[in-house]
Fold this sequence. Notes:
The chain is α/β, with parallel strands linked by helices. The protein has a single domain, classed as SPOUT methyltransferase, trefoil knot domain (Alpha/beta knot, 3-Layer(aba) Sandwich), CATH 3.40.1280. About 30% of the residues lie in helices and about 20% in strands. The protein has helices at about 10-15, 30-45, 60-70, 70-75, 85-90, 155-170; strands spanning about 20-25, 45-55, 75-80, 95-100, 105-110, 120-125, 140-145. Helix 2 (about 30-45) links the parallel strand 1 and strand 2. The radius of gyration is 15 Å and the shape is globular.
Amino acid sequence: MTTEEMHRMTVDEFRESEKLPLVVVLDNVRSLNNIGSVFRTSDAFRVERICLCGITATPPHREIHKTALGAEESVAWTYHEDARDCLRSLKEQGYTIYAVEQVDDSIKLNAQFEIHSPRLAIVLGNEIEGVQETLLPLCDGSFEIPQFGTKHSLNVSCAAAIVIWEMFKRLKV
């Protein structure tokens, strides 16, 4: 089916549409393919914007486009050299911020919990190191994706997709 047959909106219609009150923060994500994949998932669920921090590459870039398939044109994004400044700014704007990280007292996504904030931000970190420890005190909490195999982590773009979907289900009116 074509985009028209699926009744998909144009980039301009997307930009004007109501967004999910969710900001995705990518901090020091190295892989351009992972960045592009997060853009594509963010487009699928009308995420408000993506904040690219640290060494995370920014569009336009051929390798980001390879997996974003144009979503880097529809999803709003900003760049912040320091993720701490980004999180402080989000706090000032009234966002509740959650790291996606395995830490003490993290909220398992398969648990019963409610989101009481009208504006939410999630922070995803580097593919090897995860979310920087210096960012955790700036977060209101952490979400953890339960895992039942031999590995204790997921690819950052896969983790982003799971958490974005879960937040979509909980935030969508």
